[in-house]
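User: I'm writing a short methods note and want a consistent example. For Acyl dehydratase, I'll paste the sequence; you return only the structure tokens, no commentary, since I'll be parsing the reply automatically.
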Amino acid sequence: MAEPLPVPEPTPVSQPFWDGLAACKILLQYSPSAGRYVFYPRTLAPGTLADDLEWREIDGAATLYTYTVARRPTGPPWADALPQLPAVVQWDVGPRFSTELVDVDPADIRIGMRVTPVFYDIPGAGVTLLRYRPVDA
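Assistant:
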């Protein structure tokens, strides 16, 4: 039996992101001064250092940027979940996001494929993770 999954620890800055996931919404910061969405959550806008970041909901539509097929556990908590499919997706609104692919055969994964969000509640942890699956799955 695998160890329990590690649980993210929200900070005051990232709490709105995690609260959004718990409500099956993806909230990202948007900087009017920079004219773009930013991720990871932060206190000042990158490039302008303005304190104008505001939380906005996105639909989570994305393209697969890169991935790997881990046929050996990446750590003890994933010993029973093979293959593991760590990936990076690029949201249509701009930023990239590290995630895990689900509901897909590794042989069917292609860079550039369209993916859609899957909200996964960690049992007993009170935390929701954001995973992705192919649009046509």
